[in-house]
Design a protein that fits this description.
The complex is a heterodimer.
Chain A lengths: L17 H6 L4 H6 L4 H11 L11 H6 L9 E6 L8 H8 L1 H15 L3 E6 L4 H16 L15 E6 L9 H8 L23 E5 H13 L1 H5 L2 E3 L2 E2 L1 E8 L5 E6 L4 H7 L9 E5 L8 E2 L9 H6 L8 E6 L4 H15 L5 H18 L7 H12 L7 H15 L1 H10 L12
Parallel strand pairs in A: 1-2, 1-4, 2-3, 7-11
Antiparallel strand pairs in A: 5-6, 7-8, 9-10, 9-11
Helix pairs in contact in A: 3-6, 5-6, 6-9, 13-14, 13-16, 14-15, 14-16, 15-16
Chain B lengths: L6 H8 L5 H11 L9 H11 L6 H11 L3 H10 L11 E6 L2 H5 L2 H12 L12 E6 L11 E3 L2 E3 L4 H9 L3
Parallel strand pairs in B: 1-2
Antiparallel strand pairs in B: 1-3, 3-4
The chains are: A alpha/beta, B alpha+beta.
Chain lengths: ~425, ~170
């Protein structure tokens, strides 16, 4: 029986306070960590196989090991910009267990010897930001943060930095630009943030959930962590945010690699007993999977092998009343709105994808539109600085490849064959 | 206009002062970052609150002057982010998530109800200045779809009736 790790304090309101969190065993990992060599922590996290929970799935320990030892200052930027459509797991972690995140950030800062941490949180999450601010204040007052972190003599300052509504700021270099007070337009890489990051200094950027895993790895060890999951490349507990046509949408913690079928059952099955048509396994950027892939293991490598991606593990479920054209048109609209405008293929391509998909949905599509969409996908993919362009391609390409008859029906009948409302947006 | 008269500086000279409490908060925020430019986003949030929910030209100029940044640069930032407004908004600002998870669970109907009840289009302000509404990208509340954000508060698991109740509660 799998015992929740990351969400063990969810539902325990005492965990919001420093006292309550400590009572539940909190900050013991940090106390242990400050007695360890920073490099030993990096090794332990590397050994655990922890991969980034924000979307890219990059080894967290490896990322930390890229930080040069001899440079000062250094920074940790915690990515709390959770904006991938379908994703709401980090909000849960921040609102129900803020100290767990602070502890994870503090251990990371010790490991890479960064004296400043910014928690970059999306502007819309005002409640999460307030809860974090309160927890930070207590952590400072309790001697956990400040001039001498837990009496170790190591100075650590941690601040909440609110964004202002831009998906692209979840991209790590877009986030750094935004943190510095600029438009959130991604930078050219290399140099990577580990070398030239925030304010020109070496910087680690990790997602909220990634950092929340760290205290548990320190307390219970890398071997324990590796014991959870599919194999040595897909380890640890994982939060899955499931929404759409399910009976009990929500954030569920499972060992990474649970099958989609099991996950769906645990969320109460299909909404109103409907029939599964398709699902998106990893947020708006992930190509759509079909109902016959219901037994897929939801880990990084298996989902990638199936031609999609685990991404942020935001699972959007669609039943057979769903118009796929309308659904993907909405996602295309999102990417068009959120493209930062810096690279032409993404800026122009996402605009055309939205226009074409909307016209198909509105019964004004032409025979050539399917081909046209694929051609646009081809021109965007790999041709922009960051991953947003590729992300925008994911759902559209999978629509054309896997639901062509539905597109053709829209075009032939000159209307959407599914019941829908007048408003689209 | 001659080349020797940069517009930016002129605007900054004419900028009205920031309210004292905003200025004090900005001063505190400066200590958190190695460069004062990094205070820009938080400062704009504070200014927008002080100016009643949007950023008229004078607010932008005031922030630029305070942080010693070119006005053009601050405009560039204001226009980039969805949470900054350059036009007047209602006393209450309603943002309806219409992204996929909410769309699957009825957000389009929520938009239609708002249109009916408020009698104005998106981004317009009701004649009494009470409300304005917009559709919005994913607000990270997909498990309680459909949902909307009124000012800073999330209203979740909406039905048309629930939307009407929420509207009645807005003064």
């Amino acid at each position: 029986m799998f015992e929740p790790v990351l969400t063990q304090n969810v539902g325990n309101p005492d965990a919001l306070t420093l006292k309550g969190y400590k009572k539940a065993g909190g900050y013991e990992a940090l106390a242990k960590a400050v007695k360890m060599e920073p490099d030993a922590i990096i090794e332990e996290v590397k050994k655990s196989g922890l991969r980034g929970r924000g979307g890219a799935g990059f080894s967290a320990g490896l990322k930390w090991s890229f930080i040069p030892k001899d440079k000062k200052p250094k920074y940790l930027v915690c990515n709390a910009d959770e904006s991938e459509p379908g994703t709401f797991k980090d909000r849960l972690l921040m609102e129900y267990d803020p100290h767990q995140l602070i502890e994870g950030c503090a251990i990371c800062c010790w490991a890479v010897q960064a004296n400043t941490c910014y928690i970059y949180i999306r502007g819309e999450y005002t409640k999460s930001a307030e809860i974090l601010e309160r927890a930070l204040k207590e952590a400072y007052e309790g001697g956990i943060l400040g001039k001498s972190m837990m009496g170790s003599g190591f100075e650590l300052n941690m601040y909440v930095h609110r964004g202002a509504g831009a998906y692209i700021c979840g991209e790590e270099t877009g986030m750094l630009e935004s943190l510095e007070g600029k438009r959130g337009q991604p930078r050219v890489k290399p140099p990577f943030p580990a070398v030239v990051g925030a304010f020109g200094a070496p910087t680690v950027i990790n997602n909220v959930e990634t950092l929340c895993n760290v205290p548990h790895i320190i307390t219970r060890g890398a071997d324990w962590f590796k014991g959870i999951g599919t194999d040595e490349r897909n380890t640890g507990p994982k939060l899955y945010a499931i929404s759409g046509h399910v009976e009990r949408p929500g954030t569920y913690e499972h060992p990474i690699g649970i099958t989609f079928r099991e996950m769906l059952e645990k969320a109460g099955g299909m909404y109103k007993g409907g029939n599964l048509k398709a699902f998106i396994p990893g947020g708006a950027s992930a190509p759509i999977l079909l109902a016959d892939q219901i037994d897929i293991k939801m880990d990084f490598d298996t989902v990638a092998k199936a031609g999609s991606m685990l991404g942020s593990a935001a699972v959007i479920v669609m039943d057979d009343t769903t118009c796929m054209v309308r659904s993907v048109a909405r996602l295309a609209k999102f990417f068009n709105h959120e493209s930062c405008g810096q690279c032409t293929p993404c800026r122009e391509g996402t605009n055309w994808m939205e226009l074409i998909l909307k016209r198909i949905e509105h019964g004004e599509g032409t025979e050539a539109d399917g081909e046209k969409l694929l051609s646009i996908c081809q021109h965007i993919a790999g041709n922009s600085l960051c991953a947003l362009g590729d992300a925008a391609v994911g759902p559209v390409k999978s629509l054309v490849e896997r639901f062509l008859p539905e597109i053709e029906q829209h075009i032939r009948e000159r209307q959407c064959p599914f019941p829908h409302r007048r408003y689209f947006g | 206009m001659s080349v020797s008269e940069p517009v930016v500086q002129k605007d900054q000279v004419n900028a009205p002062p920031l309210p004292a409490d905003v200025k004090a908060q900005i001063t505190e925020l400066r200590t958190r970052y190695p460069k004062s430019e990094a205070v820009l986003l938080p400062a704009l949030h504070l200014a927008q609150l002080a100016w009643g929910g949007w950023l008229p030209d004078e607010a932008i100029a005031a922030v630029a002057a305070e942080l010693d940044l070119p006005v053009s640069k601050v405009y560039g930032v204001v226009t980039f982010y969805d949470l900054y407004h350059q036009n007047p908004v209602g006393r209450h600002r309603i943002r309806v998530c219409t992204n996929l998870s909410c769309q699957l669970r009825g957000s389009e109907e929520i938009m239609e109800v708002l249109h009916q009840e408020l009698g104005v289009g998106e981004e317009e302000v009701t004649p009494d200045g009470r409300c304005s509404y917009v559709h919005f990208e994913c607000l990270g509340s997909c498990d309680t779809a459909p949902m909307m954000m009124v000012d800073e508060t999330y209203h979740e698991n909406l039905t048309p009736q629930r939307v009407r109740q929420v509207l009645q509660g807005l003064k």
